[in-house]
Every structure is written in C-alpha cells, then in structure tokens.
Amino acid sequence: MSPTPAELVSAASQPVGPGFDLLLLAHVASVIIAAGAVVASGVQAWRLRAVAPGVPVPENLRRYYAEGVNWAGRVLYAVPLFGVALLAVSGGYYSLSDLWVGIGLGLWFAAALAAEGLLWPAERALQSAVARGEGSILADDATDAKRRCEAVAATAAALMVVLLGVSVLMVAQPH
Q1: For the chain, what is the largest distance between any 2 Cα atoms, rounded to a whole number of angstroms?
Q2: d(CA 144, CA 129)
Q3: What residue spans define the domains of the chain?
Q4: For 126-161, how does the pLDDT look when each residue is reduced to its tens digit (9 = 90+)?
Q5: CB contact set of 20 (below 8 Å; sequence gap of 6+)
Q6: What secondary structure letter does DSSP report for 62?
Q7: How many whole angstroms separate alpha carbon 49 and alpha carbon 151?
Q8: Residue 56: which of 149, 135, 140 has the closest Cα?
Q9: N vs C: which end of the chain shows fewer Cβ within 10 Å?
Q10: Under a CB-based contact definition with an 8 Å cutoff, are residues 96 and 148 in contact?
Q11: What is the pLDDT of residue 54?
C-alpha cells in the first residue's frame, strides 16, 4: 500500500516535538560545555606559562591545576551520543549517510583524538609539575612546563577551530 500524501509530507518535514527539542538542547549544551572547557584549558595554560620558576603559582591556577580529571572537557564525548540520538528520533529526516553528518563525526573524532593524545596528557603533566613544586614550578621543570603550556594552548586553539567548524556545519546542514 502506498503512503498517503499526508504521510509523505509528514515523513519529509523536519522533526519536532519535546523529545527532539530536549535532545537538541542537550547536544548543543554539550558542545558549549566542551568548547568552554577547551578554551579554559588554553587560557589557563597561557597564564601558567607566564609564571616564573620558583614563584608561587596564583591560587586560581593552583586550583585549576589540582590533580584530577578534567571532567568538563570529557563532556566532549556526550556530543556524538546526543547527535546519534537526534538521528534516531528524527524519523529518517537525518541519517548517518548525510555527508554533513559523516564529516561532523570525522572532525569530532579528530578532536577527541587530539584532546586524548595531546591536550589532556599535557594538562596532567602540568598538574604534576604544580604539585611537585608545592604551588610553584620548580626550576628543573620550568622548560618542560613552558613547552607543555604552549602545547596545551596550541592544541586548544586548534580544537576550537575544529569545534567551530563542526558547529557551522551542523547548523548549515549542506546537502
């Protein structure tokens, strides 16, 4: 049996409804939180880079570089989860076969690899350097700490370019 014209229009229209809207809100919020964490990483690394060896690290930087996991940054992993959920509830309007979805997932994967392979390991090393110096960077660690600060700042900048590019792609949804 063929679909009625009303069914064809319904299947071709953009998904709406509270479930879709809540997932979209969660998807966008996770992008904003992850991007904010990336920006904070870059800014704080640049600020830590300016602290001279042996000089006490300001309290706000000591708190930022307290040992532990950057959980706000890990919200990056919620982005594709909510995105795939949006695909699932879209009723076929959006699909993994859409080119913009595939490009977005590929760029997200590259961003996640950069965060896991470069950004967060360098942050953990900086946490250790601040902890070893009991609130300052020891002279022995200074060169390595500066290099790691620069790596965090550069990686954060690159990740922001990627995240902004993916965001534009997701909004534009070119076909």
Answers
A1: 79
A2: 9
A3: 16-172
A4: 999 998 888 778 888 889 999 999 999 999 999 999
A5: 86, 89, 90
A6: H
A7: 11
A8: 135
A9: N
A10: no
A11: 86
Which amino acid, residue 15? P
- Judge whether residue 25 has pLDDT over 50: yes
Element holding 155 (H helix, E strand): helix 142-172
Render 16-85 in DSSP notation, one character per residue. -SHHHHHHHHHHHHHHHHHHHHHHHHHHHHHHHHTSPTTSBPPHHHHHHTSSS--HHHHGGGHHHHHHHH
Residue with tokens 């890990």: 74
Residue found under tokens 């940054």: 73
Report the C-alpha gap between 171 and 122 in whole angstroms: 32
Instruction: Write down the pLDDT at residue 6.
Output: 47
Region for residue 66 given its phi and psi (left: phi exceeds 0; alpha: psi -120 to 50; beta: otherwise) = beta
Instruction: Give the pLDDT score at 1.
Output: 62
Q: Which residues pair with 56 in a beta bridge?
A: 136
Mean predicted confidence (pLDDT) in 5-31: 80
Average pLDDT of the chain? 91
Flag whether the pTM goes above 0.70.
yes
